Structure prediction request, 271 residues.
Amino acid sequence: MKEFFKGKVVCITGSSQGIGKATALLLGSYGASIALNGRNPEKLQKAHDELTAQGIDCHSIVADISTKEDCKRIVDETVQHFGKLDVLINNAGIASRGRISESDPEAWDQIMQINTMGVINTTYFALPHLEKQNGSVIIISSMAAKVGVPGHAGYSASKMALTAYAKALQIEAHNKVHCGLVYVGFTANENQKQILKPDGTYEAIPQRKGLKLASREDVAKRIARVIVDRKKEITLTVLGKLQHILLKFAPSVVYAMLKKSYKTYDDMYDA
Prediction:
């Protein structure tokens, strides 16, 4: 797998922390040149320093994927700096919470603009370059894309839309560009990870307790395998795979579990 990435140029949105940074570190260690992206200049510089300290060839792009212009700039700067683009990993996104009845429409707009349109716009500008390399576009999704999660409907909707987008792209770009869809399960978050509240402001995500969480490094390795094997779709973590099976053969069990978990919503967020 390491040989595959030598000389490749990989652009990863939302790579100043979390899964994005872990993937940048891994693929960079395999010999890929990395285009880093994030909205926060300080966090992005810290990630850049971490990669360069390990001898990884990287270029940082401060940009916000919620705007079409910045999505184009991410791709343009990557190609201008490295001369090509082999892999685009659409990792940037925001988590959100809020009952449908209490969520301001502007909060929904933020969610869709970043999680959905950010992927669509960046991919649009990257496709001509990826076609030249017979490259890959990877979409990092969530198990929330497979079922509407109560208290997190906006997030679920934004990720569900990407499933339809990815599956259509897999057919349209067949033999030109590989499109891989990665359904990430429960993964360990960094302490500064934030979630969008129903009023459009942000707060720290509560620590996940009582769950066996996948490490960011393990998720990065699975993403690398999707690229190398040109897989169309993969579901991560034992819990994620179990949910996938139950949704297919016993959906009522999943919905019963969702109803039960929703009862703890107020306690979790101190609503």
